[in-house]
Amino acid sequence: MLKIFPQYFQIILAKLAASSAVALACFPFVAPAQTGAVSMNLAGSDPRDYSAPPPFIARLGEVPDWTILDAYQHTITREEFTYLLNHCYARSKEEYKDLITIQEDRVLILKQSNHPEAGWYDLRFRQKGHLSAEPPRFWRRPVDLPDLEPNSTRPLDGVLIAIDPGHIGGKWVTWDDRHFRIGRDTIEVREGEMTLTVAKILERDLSLLGARVLLTRNSNHPVTEERVETLQEEARHYLIQRKKVPSGSLISSTAKAMFAISSEIRERGNLVNESLQPDLALCLHFNASPMSARYPSFKTPNHLHLLINGCYSGGEIAEDDTRMEMLLRILQRVYYEEVELADEISRPMQKETRLPSFHYDGTNGMAINNNDLVWARNLLANRVFMCPVVFFEPYCMNHREVYDRVQMGEYDGLREINGAYRKNIYQEYADGITAGLVRYFEKNR
Fold first, then answer.
1. What residue ranges of the chain are covered by domains with CATH 3.40.630.40?
2. Which CATH architecture fits 142-444?
3. Strand runs (DSSP E) across 266-408, as ranges?
4. Per-residue pLDDT tens listing for the chain (445 residues)
5. How many CB atoms lie within 10 A of CB 166?
6. Using alpha carbons only, what angle is made at residue 431 by residues 341 and 285, rounded to the nearest 5 degrees?
């Protein structure tokens, strides 16, 4: 089953075209002169041409409509495009060498990685000295927001924030594999329920500071209507395309991942991009050290890190939809907002949690500034949410102290924990984020 790439950017452009006054108020964008994509006779575009292989897309991904990039013609210079691609998004130049070709005045993007005959999309660079047009996007930078009233006590006034409580809770934790219990008379750790607790604290606290806060889910029920049972055939086709033998057990495990990860996150992405359209998104998670699912045990590491989108591998860039999503983030200049947001939030968050930083080896996560708490990594949520996203990974749930704090629940005030008086773990998590957001908007607004 092939789908069509979400048309939320066409929705944005339709809004722009409908009313120039509204467009100028909501989106500081002036449509550039259109050169369009290269006109080519695309082998495989005719559905009767069975010689072309199906597009190579991510799990439950959607076939990209490359004309979405037409609106970004002449909006970025060669120097800035190259910098963003090499500094943050591609793990190395080798990862994209056969898929993206940077020329003096344009970049050529292969439309279908497993079928070069489909041709290349031609994106023209903005030339030096030419007027810059803002790229189309639904989110606003701090400088785009109305000025605050003098001496305002609501530094987040008017900011639209989406909060994504990672994973799912309730009876659905068995499909999510983010739950465990150590010992007989203890409360089971359920990440999806813990992130929802933090999300609701943030919703309360950020609203008091003037933000409009929207959650991608308000309960332990999944957002997607798909279920493991409905994704069996999709899983089989996916395995065949990836040249894997579609055994019963492999189909079952793939369908399970499609439900809990791909379908659930993509549906939240549709909600963020088409309905909520926030200025930024906060993806809440708890970490865990590797352990046996059958015999969970306490592990020593306990740490903190924040993620922005980046560090794409060659295999990821080869997926046609993933390549498009990466390019949209580059063209919208999401990086600048994400890295400063993550940097500002990481400091008070470390102060609150008292956790050391976690380090990646550069394979699936890489450093992008001199802050060892902030890393670039390509995850589905921080890729398909088309706005600045900060992805949080504090606390290892199978560290003994963290596990004990989960057992304490959402208590009021302070309690002594290993010789120090601490807030409950959920309030502590939320307070670090809140303090960081206030710092960021006070500095940049």
1. 142-444
2. 3-Layer(aba) Sandwich (3.40)
3. 280-284, 304-308, 366-367, 374-376, 389-394
4. 444 454 455 545 454 444 333 333 332 323 333 333 333 333 344 444 557 899 999 999 999 999 999 999 999 999 999 999 999 999 999 999 999 999 999 999 999 999 999 999 999 999 887 777 789 999 999 999 999 988 889 999 999 999 999 999 999 998 888 999 999 899 999 999 999 999 999 999 999 999 999 999 999 999 999 999 999 999 999 999 899 999 999 999 999 999 999 999 999 999 999 999 999 999 999 999 998 888 899 999 999 999 999 999 999 999 999 999 999 999 999 999 999 999 999 999 999 999 999 999 999 999 999 999 999 999 999 999 999 999 999 999 999 999 999 999 999 999 999 999 999 999 999 999 999 999 999 999 8
5. 26
6. 70
Count CA atoms closer than 13 A to 33's CA, side-chain side.
7
The number of residues making up the chain comes to 445
Asked whether 314 and 367 are in contact (CB, 8 A), the reply is no
Give this prediction's pTM. 0.89
Amino acid identity at 35? T
